[in-house]
């Protein structure tokens, strides 16, 4: 393998991981790929074990990274919902691949 290619590839992977690090960012993004808009409470219910404080912190970070947008939806209650930006939607294939890999590894380890 070309050393220059390895360096660029490694840097790109590290950069992506620095953005997506932590216990909750990928699960939040995954939940938002499954439904166009989710309210805070819906997200919290779908992410077993996440506290309101942790969810709020991670949603703010994802907004700062331009992966998620927070919008106030006009209705009787003017409620807030979260949705992925186009940049956030670009992560779906990567998350799908990661899930397929995880399923394969889980099956391989179960068969041992």
Question: Key terms for this structure?
Answer:
112 residues; mainly alpha; Arc Repressor Mutant, subunit A; three-stranded antiparallel beta sheet; 6 helices; 63% helix; 11% strand; globular; DNA binding; WH_DNA-bd_sf; transcription regulation; HTH-type transcriptional activator hxlR
Walk me through this protein's architecture.
The protein has 112 residues and is mainly alpha-helical. Helices cover 63% and strands 11% of the residues. It has a single domain, classed as Winged helix-like DNA-binding domain superfamily/Winged helix DNA-binding domain (Arc Repressor Mutant, subunit A, Orthogonal Bundle), CATH 1.10.10. A three-stranded antiparallel sheet has the order 1-3-2. The longest helix has 19 residues, at 92-110. It comes from Streptococcus hyointestinalis. Keywords: DNA-binding, Transcription, Transcription regulation. Residues 11-110 form the HTH hxlR-type domain.
**Could you give the order of the helices and strands?**
HHEHHEEHH
Q: Proportion of β residues?
A: 5-15%
Just name the CATH architecture: Orthogonal Bundle
Structural class: mainly alpha
What overall geometry do the principal axes of the alpha carbons give? globular
Distance between the termini: 32 Å
Helix count equals 6
Q: What is the percent of helical residues?
A: 55-70%
The CATH first-level class comes to Mainly Alpha
Averaged pLDDT, please? Answer: 89
Cα gyration radius (Å): 17 Å
Number of strands: 3
CATH topology (fold) name: Arc Repressor Mutant, subunit A
Low-confidence stretches: none
User: CATH superfamily, called what?
Assistant: Winged helix-like DNA-binding domain superfamily/Winged helix DNA-binding domain
The major sheet is characterized as: 3 strands, antiparallel
Total domain units: 1
Main-sheet strand order equals: 1-3-2
Domain HTH hxlR-type: 11-110
InterPro entries: HTH_HxlR, WH-like_DNA-bd_sf, WH_DNA-bd_sf
Protein name: HTH-type transcriptional activator hxlR
Pfam family, one: HxlR
């Amino acid at each position: 393998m070309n050393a220059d290619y390895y360096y660029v590839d490694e840097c790109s992977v590290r950069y992506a991981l620095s953005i997506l690090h932590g216990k909750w960012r990928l699960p939040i993004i995954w939940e938002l790929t499954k439904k166009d808009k989710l309210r805070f409470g819906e997200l919290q219910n779908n992410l077993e074990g996440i506290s309101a404080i942790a969810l709020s912190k991670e949603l703010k970070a994802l907004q700062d990274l331009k992966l998620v947008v927070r919008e106030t939806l006009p209705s009787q209650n003017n409620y807030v919902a979260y949705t992925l930006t186009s940049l956030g939607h670009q992560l779906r294939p990567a998350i799908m691949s990661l899930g397929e890999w995880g399923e394969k590894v889980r099956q391989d380890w179960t068969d041992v």
